[in-house]
Design goal:
Phosphoribosyl-aminoimidazole Synthetase, Chain A, domain 2; four-stranded mixed beta sheet; globular; alpha/beta; 2 domains; 60s Ribosomal Protein L30, Chain: A; homodimer; seven-stranded mixed beta sheet
């Protein structure tokens, strides 16, 4: 059977078919519509570009749809969204794209939305040379405002989970040899592929933050996500908050089979796409939160000083001389 | 002097520089934030892709920025937005793009926002093979809900202005010969280029609709814009509202120097990018509105029947046998 391509079905029919992924199978109109109350709306945009952020060899279309949603919701969560409203999808696709590919991407998106909240509100589809999924996501700001510029000297730096796994998953999927000298544990390989293809979020994060807060007047917390890598997240916090991040290498949460070596440290700090939260809290609050949520780890603290990152014992500082991965 | 390229300045510096186009020169965070009240929010997305929707030969980057905003605000307006909140910009750009190009695009965007309302709320920039500007625009729904599916048999079909000019402007800018047998009036050429490069909207449209409404219980109006051409706009209304559009060819508003002939009819109906509104009203209301706003013209009516488009005298119906321009 001949594959059904977008050039066969046409733009109007494509939009009709995508309607079934939206609530009430709503017909396309010029705009999507949402009802709001007296609240603050968080809006985020994130794009995935073929051969820059993904390719057909390393990730299935359904996983890609899931991941596109996750990368946006992660930004909403890291800003303090307590409820996700939905997403607007902008697809740029070559005429030779299979309808099946688009359908699978949308299925993956709806699975992620079903798990973490929100619906497909609308979107647009245009012709282009390479596949691009650009999503604008909307959420409602909760009681706590999480921003990059709200960290303070003296605060403990924490993270919601392990870094580097997604990068290892990408290496495995790309059939790239991650380290000539190390044989990698099979369970770790499987876990890494899962982290790369179907990353997960911590939906209880905000609830647990509120549960463990003793001073109700504190509303702002320094926070971002590690979508561009742990190093980038720490640097974004340090620069926006104008303080120095001191990292305790020994305290970094790692998979029990994560190999040792410079290469593995690089994957850990610069890998990206782990979608863990990186944030800072006053010591008292940090300790209560760690006790409540076993996935959260203390990894260092902020001090007064230049907005850069250092290791506590100074030994590993050469790692941060490396230039992190740049797209441009 | 060497041109400054995005690969020279890097992603972080690019985002810093774009900050100056946003209110309060706001630092980048994971999300943009807006305050809402008890209202309905309209959300639209529209993308412009290089060599599909634009190219460097036919339009300057500043005009392109202007046009990208106009195409989104036109959709908000055609849905009944009485106030534009702002836009989220997703840029996909090759590493060899000049910073100057990006700066000019943003200047053009801010000029359009200054004229029609709204600010740049945030955005994202990614590497890609071809230039893409994808905008998500937000507005607040006014008292009238303008939707494609609200037209009714018996209503008068109206439009806010002349069609085909933008297409002619594109032909002139592309140095394509629009008609071998016709010499085109110079004033018309100049006007067409203006319509193509700096399209304008009718910001008083909603005010005038409300002013001329006698039955205050009527809240829904059939409306869309002609960004994809007058034919497509009429077809969208006809299909969504399930009625037949009867067009009076003699009543179509045309530039006084618009040439005659099949080719020119095609430009008129299928050209696109004119951003005029196409809508329908009960006769009484339509007549009052035409009296108040001289730019608005009656061009036909809706009747019961199959959702298609016909000419009143039937003579020109072969025109609609043509397939309108398709991207896929």
């Amino acid at each position: 059977m001949r594959k059904e391509l977008l050039e066969d079905i046409g733009e109007k029919e494509l939009i009709n078919r995508l309607g079934k992924f939206m609530p009430n199978n709503q017909a396309s109109d010029d705009c999507a519509l949402i009802k709001t109350k007296n609240e603050k709306l968080l809006i985020n945009n994130d794009s995935l570009v073929e051969n820059v952020h993904f390719n057909d060899l390393t990730i299935s279309p359904q996983d890609l749809g899931w991941k596109a949603v996750i990368s946006n919701i992660s930004d909403l969560l890291s800003s303090g969204s307590y409820k996700n409203i939905g997403i607007i999808i902008s697809l740029i696709l070559p005429a030779k794209t299979e309808w099946k590919w688009v359908e699978e991407v949308y299925k993956g998106m709806n699975k992620a939305l079903k798990k973490y909240g929100g619906v497909i509100l609308g979107g647009d589809c245009s012709l282009g040379k390479e596949k691009i999924i650009s999503i604008t996501a909307l959420g409602i700001q909760g009681e706590l405002e999480l921003q990059r510029n709200a960290s303070k000297p003296g605060e403990i730096i924490l993270t919601t989970g392990i870094h580097g796994l997604s990068k290892l998953g990408f290496m495995v999927q790309s059939k790239l040899n991650s380290d000539n000298y190390v044989s990698i544990n099979k369970r770790l390989v499987k876990k890494s592929i899962e982290h790369f293809c179907r990353p997960r979020l911590c939906p209880n994060f905000l609830k647990n933050l509120l549960k463990t807060r003793s001073n109700k007047t504190v509303k702002r917390i320094g926070c971002t996500d590690s979508s561009d890598g742990l190093f980038q997240a720490l640097q974004d916090l340090a620069i926006a908050s104008n303080c120095k991040a001191i990292i305790n290498y020994e305290k970094l949460p790692k998979d029990k089979n994560w190999p040792k070596g410079d290469k593995w440290d690089e994957y850990y700090f610069f890998g990206g796409e782990d979608y863990e939260l990186v944030f800072s809290l006053p010591k008292n609050w940090a300790m209560k939160l760690i006790k409540l949520d076993k996935n959260i780890n203390e990894i260092g603290y902020f001090s007064k000083g230049e907005p850069l990152i250092e290791f506590k014992d100074g030994k590993k500082n050469k790692l941060f001389k490396k230039t992190p991965f740049k797209h441009f």
